[in-house]
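G., the chain you wanted modeled:
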Amino acid sequence: QVQLSLLTAIVKLFLKRPTDTQELVQHVLSLATQDSDNPDLRDRGFIYWRLLSTDPAAAKEVVLAEKPLISEETDLIEPTLLDELICHISSLASVYHKPPTAFVEG
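Predicted structure as tokens:
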């Protein structure tokens, strides 16, 4: 996990200051793709390498993109309906935020 974080941090640094960190990012990508036994690290290294070599602008958009805020929608659902949806969590009722009776005719 630390190695993945370091790889991502170095790529982000390269995207912000390419002239100062070009040798560093090349060395780290080389280590990640050739000398690592960790398949996740190796795969991410190849992905970053491919992104940076083919389209640096796209790499910048992907790697430096802002993460969306995580919001809780449970406050928007009335408590009685929420309790009923939790009881039927494995059904479509919980997906559509409707009680199970809304899906039955009659």
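The longest helix spans residues 18-34.

Shout if anything looks off.
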